[in-house]
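= Paired protein data =
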Amino acid sequence: MRTAPSADVDAARGKAPRAAESGDRDARTVPVGLLLAGLAVTLLLALTAAVSWGSSGVPFTDVWSTVLHRLTGGQPRPGTQDLIVWQLRVPRALLAAVVGAGLGVVGTAVQALVRNPLADPYLLGISNGASLGAVAAIVLGAGTGGLLGLGVSGAAFLGALLSFALVWAVARRGGAFSPLRLVLAGVAIGQFLSGFTSYLVLRVGDEQQTQGVLFWLLGSLGGAQWSTLALPAAAVLLGLLALQARARALNALLLGDETAAGLGVDVAALRRELFVVTSVLTGVLVSVSGAVGFVGLMVPHLCRLVVGGDHRRLLPVSALTGAVLLVVVDIVCRTALPSTELPVGVVTAFVGAPVLLFLLDRRLERAR
């Protein structure tokens, strides 16, 4: 049996991890409680800025005055400020935080699931199914209730569930459930579904409709409403709690199947749980925000540089970091250009690609 690194074995057994190997910071030198508190304060400031900044600026004091007035049961105040702050910007800022937190958590879990630090939530093909469902809703009229009475978000979630079932069936064929089989099934089915999506996009004859389809495929938080917050917020919270409860098992899984089994982990059952949680959570997130790339890939890497690889620390830190990142990205999307709004996926790609290249270069330097 392969000998596991002592720090990872200690983490899997619930002990304090030993000093990290050369090139990594010792996770013990980072007070995680203080880090989480700092991230929470940063998130609160980012949310305030997201509500304050825009085409019509609102002072920070007025933002909090309006929010506290509404939270204490006050009636809408006359004028446009209540509409801008409470009805438009607060739901959007909160949705950005929820989606960012969810992508950070899912990215961390997927990388443990397939034991690949370059994996992201879209590797399993679930987002491709959600994209196909949403595009079909827009092109075929489901967004107005014509197809099965589904809206765009509902059709996206249905597409995610169908692609999840298809990937699951292929990955389980023959009784095996290995990371390689899962990745190959997800990539193959994802590309297959992307072909249908491209075909539907080509069928769009209306220029405005085409722009709406492409904008959704690149990610958008513009449709945020109070009614759209409950489902993703509940899904992210439950997903985080479920994964946090299995944090030690996730630590063991990274050491390899034999070592994890030797530590008492049912590897096959754990992979099934991870696949179900990450697939459903990805489907929920894509259904409300479109396809937002790089967040689930970039955030876990950045957080590992600070807190190490112990999932008991990594999961909550990734959630808060992802929330802060996407709130800031959404501010940039709304304010970078004076007369138009950038898709969220465009900005995350601009940020994520250089970060990914830096991380790859860092890994190559350490491997020499």
